[in-house]
Amino acid sequence: MHSVLITGGAGFIGQNLVHDWSSKRPEDRVVVLDALTYAANIRSLEPLIADRRITFVKGDIPTVLEMFSPDIRWQVSGRAGIAGEYRGHDAFWD
Ligand SMILES: NC(=O)c1ccc[n+]([C@@H]2O[C@H](COP(=O)([O-])OP(=O)(O)OC[C@H]3O[C@@H](n4cnc5c(N)ncnc54)[C@H](O)[C@@H]3O)[C@@H](O)[C@H]2O)c1
Fold this sequence. Notes:
This protein has helices spanning 12-24, 46-50, 61-67, 82-87, and strands spanning 3-7, 29-34, 54-58, 72-75. It is an alpha/beta fold. β1, α1 (12-24) and β2 form a beta-alpha-beta unit. It starts with a strand and ends in a 7-residue tail after the last helix. The structure holds nicotinamide-adenine-dinucleotide.
């Protein structure tokens, strides 16, 4: 059993990683961190949260790393995608 931190877990890549990891390694303790920016979609994670298969934390990366020292850390957070740029979304320019 491992403790696993996935940052950006509500993003495009992160969501798929969270579902894949939790189904293939149900014994692991999975903590998902996401700042819930414009790019995030928490809805796909809601069944896993409701079933207590993952712990979801809304926050920024440095905050969570102070609280939690995982065995495995997947960092798929970021400000990605030209779609945000074309939409002129403010968050893209932070
Ligand atoms: N999708 C691709 O095809 C692709 C290709 C190459 C590289 N990447 C890189 O992979 C990473 C993930 O890509 P994606 O498509 O899943 O992006 P995404 O924008 O869909 O998801 C990124 C997630 O990170 C979260 N986030 C942003 N800043 C954060 C912070 N400081 N703390 C916590 N969470 C934060 C966002 O809320 C979002 O849910 C990015 O760094 C991207 O540049 C993606």
